[in-house]
Amino acid sequence: MGKAQKYVLLGDATYPLQDWILKPYQEDENLTQRQLQFNYRLKRAHSVIENAFLRLKARWQILLKCDDCSLELLPTLVLACCILHNVCEAHDNPFNEEWLEGTEPTELPKPSQPAPAAMEDNRAEQVRELMCQYFESCGEG
Asked: Cα 1 to chain center, whole Å?
């Protein structure tokens, strides 16, 4: 869209809209088709991320029981698993679907109440609008 953007995290409706956290538009009857499409694509992206983490945990099941290692080691352990996982994926190393049997998708803790409007960043709406325009220009998918 002609404007450089930095990376963003995907959040759900309970998170405050920030220029580094993208969240869906609040679901109501006033959403435009473009906003509905944005929400749909955000949900799809979120499901791809969840699936990637599920595969990562299934392939490297040490991540399921990290409570037996020191906190100082944990970031290195997770990084090593991510690197090895990406190497396996890049080289089409077969993923055994049976590995998923011991791995359940886990709900990560998140806020129980929506963030107050005062926490939202007005500039973030411009970022979301740019993404919305981008998704619209990409067509279906």
From this structure: 22
CA–CA separation, 129 and 132 (whole Å): 5
pLDDT tens, 59-98? 888 888 767 778 888 889 889 999 998 999 899 998 888 8
Domain assignment of residue 129, yes or no: no
Residue numbers of the domain that contains 83: 57-95
**d(C-alpha 67, C-alpha 17), whole Å:** 33
Measured CA to CA in angstroms, residue 98 lies from 10, 94, 103 at distances of 29, 12, 10
Q: Does pTM surpass 0.85?
A: no
CB burial of residue 106 (10 Å; 0-12, 13-18, 19+): exposed
d(CA 84, CA 55): 12
| 79 in a structural domain | yes
